[in-house]
Known about the structure:
By secondary structure, the chain is mainly alpha-helical. It is built from 30 helices and 6 strands.
Amino acid sequence: MANRNLTEQVKIGLAVGAIALTFLAAILDRMKANSKKNEAARAFLENTAIMKIGKYSLNVYQSFVAALLFAAVFGTVNYNRYDTDLIENGYDEYDLLHYYINAKYFDELGYFRLLPSLLVASNEAGPFCERHAPVYLAQDEEDYRIRPVGYALAQREEIKSHFTPERWAEFTHDAIFIQRESKRLSCNLWRQLLQDHGFNGTPTWVLAARPITNIVPVEHIKYATLVDLFLIIAMLGVVFWAFGAQTFAFAWIFITVCYSFRWPTITWVLLRYDWMTFMVMGVCLIKKEKHVAAGAFFAWAALMRYFPALWLFGIAAKGVQALLTNKNVPWSKFWLRVPMAYYKMAAGFFGLILFVLPISFAADGIDSHKQSLANMTAHVEPHNLSSMRQGLAIALTYRGETDMTLISAEKKLMVEEMEKPLRYVSIALLIVLGLFLSRAKDWEAVGLGIIPYFFLTTSSYYYYSMRLTAIVIHAADLSKKRNVVGLTILFAIELFCHASEYLNNGNRYFLISVMGLMMLGYAIAMYAFFGVKWWKERKPPEKKLDSDAGDPPQTVPEADAEAETAQLPDGESDDDSDGEIDETTRAEVKETESEAPEKVSRPQRSAKKSKKKKRRKS
């Protein structure tokens, strides 16, 4: 298996290649547009063999897609470090002691007893890294507190009272197998694990994971870790179905170079990327106008991790704007102002939640949901920040430090002081974003959910794997400048993260701070593009009537123009070209106008009518 330094360097090269391929895709899109009016150019694109694979000849675009797929396959080999062990044998003991064990023994452990239970079981099994782990992070419904290991051992009887003797024996066997018999958990990782903020899966996540942990014994735990791989493969298949080969390939490349996929490693953990796969598939289903299913997919993602609900901000904002601005429907029937697709999506979303939650309540009780919310709230408190958290607050507290490797107490205090005012500013910015997204397609508005998430939360960098929703919507149409810029920035973030990890290994605070500033740059770029688009299209364009006879220009009444715009699907504008009109379309319009019968002006029509009247009188 190749060392980490080599794979980091290759990921740097792959990220650079992805940026180059982004610009090449934009050039190809322009060439395809121009070929519509140029027979020679069209023949070149369609018939000229650029690449041969065996007996198959590939034209320009097919060769480009082949290059994308080659980069994706090579990126996958590099991600697996040029060995099959990562997929066949490897797994992450650190993560599975949280997620496999806590899901399997959730009835006994809940949200606050995992670490003390592990310490008691480890103590009963004999010494293990005692000098390396003198303290642990104790947790209750209020907060986290550093305690000596002896504090947990003193609770032995209380902890074991939650287990039957048989269940305690099973728990001890499973925990010790992962901790020791796998021979992968170092003393440093054990110390780090005991000071981790711990398990934060929701009760509905437990509902999905517990059957897997009960079916798969700990001796064959590797099989449980393959579930994420199958979900990601299914997700990529849905991307291909909804958006085509180009978007599919860019999404695949992103997975292989994204810093957020560096850990937890795919195929080493249990259901750590399920929420992300359902979010991406939800975007694809909106694109294919399967709104009920899309709503259900986002509901499942939200039940797994809560925050995916923020991705629905854009489409909710579009619905509110339709309600307030659709003048074609009277207020007496205000519900008809909102497109039916949004009702279907809401039905899928709330329908699944109302179906799943009662099952979860019956299995684990309502209190487990209250504890989950308390756990999540404590998890994101500023004083509990770690050096791998990401968000707008982290970016704004950065002052150019390069020598500070971990987030300091001073920085945590800065985040805490700006938390309240920043929340108000973020809400104001999101209101503006909602206004701008009224001109976006539904699947674009949802795919940009990373912006509200970045503004409102401070979460682990690994959750930023959900930038994949933005990758998909940008790669879907690289004829638009905003998508070229967006995709370039997103791949540039990965380029920076891997370069920083390689050149300045261990400097986590520098990495997350600059990463946050680049995310802020991405958000500003999207605001600029969609803001300009909204400004240009905020009022329907005036349509001039024929004025050859000297009449003043006439315009279509505002209500009629609005009605015309309202006929577009999903509230979208008919001009989505960012100000660029296809030359072929312009030529076709001119040709149509030249062939149309000559129009008769109003004075000419009135003169003809008066002549007819005179003839009748005579």
